[in-house]
Design goal:
The complex is a heterodimer. Chain A is built from 14 helices and 4 strands. By secondary structure, chain A is mainly α. The longest helix of chain A is centred in the C-terminal third of the chain and has 27 residues. In chain B, about 40% of the residues lie in helices and about 25% in strands. In chain B, the strands form 3 sheets. Chain B has a 6-stranded mixed β-sheet, with helices on both faces. Chain B has a 4-stranded antiparallel β-sheet with strand order 2-1-4-5, with helices on one face. In chain B, strand 9, helix 6 and strand 10 form a beta-alpha-beta unit. At the A-B interface, helix 9 and helix 10 of A face helix 2, strand 8 and helix 4 of B.
């Protein structure tokens, strides 16, 4: 079987118009965010040369990387047809568990990190189990876990430590053995880049590979696109959905741990409000809110846009109070552009 | 009713199967069968219980009473996977395709081809693209680009993709849920051709429809459903096309309707005359009497 089939001679098929290279590019879900990122980079670079200096780049990759890791997980879940509003607060829970277990109870830091991971995965499992079991919108289920975790973070921490923050991680035994993994810096031409950027690139690469090249990725698209149809052809929809929720919570554990080890302390309100930023990044990156379509690379670029805007406004000498306004405007632009592109891609091929 | 089978063995058989949803009797005492290289048609109007019956075959629902035999073994499926593992493939009315996904991903969804081992196991995308394209070409669908979302294909094409998929994955029994319902005359003809093609390849086909004109030319066996009950299970030799049409049309009900309309006078009376003529034409009453007493 060769890939080039000669067209039927008797009945030339008018439906199979050639799909041009431009259209092939344009139908990629991440293309909108990529163009947006390039435009933003040029604009901010024109406003300030510091923006594209190595130190400047390190500066805006810093917030982009933590949001980027979460955006990868949230994008996978969103392609699978669900939201996780508890993901932001869970990064706080993750850090608090590790911090309390080590500084208050004297547990080995490796054991504490492992237990924290297990508990986070448990939260993800509960989210996924409740969503698949009840059939209720994940928006409501995870809104409930979001509120409960927020309360637990504050109440339990105050109960144990009497304050709203846990610190002193540097005095914990074996802190030095985890520090290189979670909080070291890589020096490039004398400028330190945080190791979390490597984690971000790794998460994006693995996420993109899983989505495009594995059976699980195929199932993710399928359950997000049409859960009933995919179940009917033998896709284990329940298992796929629960796994997706657990992937998000594993990423939340990673981000919580990265923050804790780097800052050596954690506040009880950490991560609050960030869950919406993850969703914004995923949507800017081309994920459909209704599921079944999207890209983790796009979501990572969405997080990059967030990081660039966050720092770029300061570099450009603008009042940083305007940041959220710009972010909102970009979100609106992105969804409008994505909608247009999708229609263009599908109509022209009918 | 006779015990005659089409082919030596029944690939799939149900005996006195019933299904209840709470207090609702969805199906009661339904029996039929399909052999290899045979087509069994299940006919019924809306709400007759056709969809429930399919879902029992497909493993979506479990029957509450009666026997369900696959190649002679009693089975009780708990998931669509079980049915697929026994070689029963279902092509649904809503087509069971994920519209935003490319054609080739849909073709292999749930039965993906992989290469590599352990954590490196990955989709063999090239092989799947090529196979999907070749299999569809064999079915007479020449797609230039199997990467286009399946939602961009026409209804008939999507139906054929679904049939090609089932045949490729070695289905022994193919269950088609109203495959011609939403199609134009020409496209319906194409789908009927594939039904016969599947039969020629030795598959047992259960063809669900409400259209006797689609069913009769391709069917070897006919089971009529009405309000969850069976009106009979006939071999082709036992029933004519007109009798089948008459039973489907519900001759007795047409007659009752005609009487009712006659009372109305004027335009209604005219319609009543037409209905009566149709009832006469179909030979409805005679046929129903003969079949229900046999």
């Amino acid at each position: 079987m060769t890939t080039t089939l000669s067209p039927p001679q008797t009945d030339p098929d008018e439906r199979v118009a050639r799909v041009g290279i431009v259209r092939r590019l344009v139908v990629r879900p991440e293309i909108g965010s990529l163009i947006g990122a390039v435009v933003l980079f040029v604009v901010f670079a024109a406003a300030s040369s510091n923006f594209y200096s190595l130190a400047g780049i390190s500066n805006w990759l810093d917030p982009a990387s933590l949001f980027g890791i979460m955006a990868v997980g949230v994008a996978l879940l969103m392609i699978g047809g669900h939201f996780d509003l508890s993901a932001g607060v869970l990064t706080g829970t993750s850090g608090l568990i590790t911090a309390v277990m080590t500084t208050q109870w004297g547990l080995n830091i490796w054991v504490a990190l492992l237990l924290s991971l297990v508990l986070c995965l448990g939260v993800g499992f509960v989210n996924g189990y409740l969503v698949t079991r009840t059939g209720l919108p994940s928006f409501i289920i995870t809104l409930a876990t979001f509120l409960m975790l927020q309360g637990l973070n504050l109440a339990v921490t105050k109960l144990i430590t009497g304050t709203v923050s846990v610190g002193g991680m540097t005095t914990v035994p074996f802190y030095d053995s985890v520090q290189p993994i979670f909080a070291s810096k890589i020096s490039i031409f004398g400028v330190g880049f945080k190791i979390q950027i490597v984690w971000w690139i790794l998460a994006t690469a693995v996420g993109a590979w899983v989505l495009a090249k594995t059976r699980f990725g195929n199932w993710t698209f399928a359950v997000g696109g049409d859960p009933v149809a995919s179940r009917n052809v033998g896709v284990p929809a329940t298992r796929t959905t629960i796994t997706l929720f657990m992937i998000v919570s594993a990423f939340a554990w990673l981000v919580g741990s990265l923050k804790l080890i780097e800052q050596t302390s954690v506040q009880t309100n950490q991560g609050f409000g960030e869950e919406l930023i993850y969703i914004v990044a995923a949507v800017i990156g081309g994920c459909l809110l209704t599921g079944g379509y999207g890209s983790v690379i796009g979501a990572s670029i969405g997080a990059l846009i967030f990081g660039m805007t966050n720092q770029g406004i300061v570099y450009a000498g603008l009042d940083s109070d305007w940041f959220k306004f710009f972010l909102g405007a970009m979100l609106l632009l992105a969804v409008l552009a994505n909608q247009f592109v999708r229609r263009f891609a599908e109509q022209k091929r009918k | 009713m006779t015990e005659q089978t089409n082919g030596a063995t029944s690939l799939l058989e149900i005996r006195n199967v019933s299904k209840f949803f709470g207090g609702v009797i969805a199906l009661q005492d339904i029996s039929t069968k399909v052999g290899a290289a045979a087509v069994t048609c299940v006919l019924g109007d809306n709400g007759a219980g056709k969809s429930t019956l399919i879902k029992i075959f497909a493993g979506v629902h479990k029957h509450d009473a009666g026997e369900f035999l696959v190649e002679g073994d009693p089975v009780a499926f708990t998931s669509p996977r079980d049915a697929l593992d026994r070689g029963i493939a279902t092509v649904y009315q809503d087509l069971a395709v994920v519209r935003l996904m490319p054609v080739w991903r849909n073709f292999f969804l749930g039965s993906e081809v992989r290469k590599g081992k352990g954590p490196a196991a990955r989709l063999d995308t090239d092989a799947m693209r090529k196979t999907a394209k070749a299999e569809l070409l064999a079915m007479g669908i020449d797609l230039r680009d199997v990467d286009q979302p399946i939602g961009t294909l026409s209804g008939g094409e999507r139906q054929c993709v679904a049939i090609a998929r089932a045949v490729y994955f070695g289905a022994k029994v193919l269950i088609l849920d109203e495959p011609t319902a939403a199609l134009g005359v020409k496209q319906a003809g194409v789908v009927l051709k594939y039904v016969l093609q599947a039969k020629e390849r030795g598959l047992g086909v259960i063809f669900i429809t409400h259209n006797p004109h689609h069913a009769y030319p391709v069917g070897d066996r006919f089971m009529l459903l009405k309000r969850g009950k069976s009106l009979g299970d006939f071999a082709k030799s036992e029933i004519t096309r007109d009798e089948l049409t008459a039973m489907m049309a519900g001759g007795a009900e047409l007659e009752a309707l005609s009487h009712e309309l006659q009372g109305g006078g004027g335009v209604a009376a005219e319609a009543a005359h037409e209905l009566e003529a149709e009832v006469q034409n179909l030979g409805v009453v005679a046929a129903e009497e003969r079949l229900t007493t046999s």
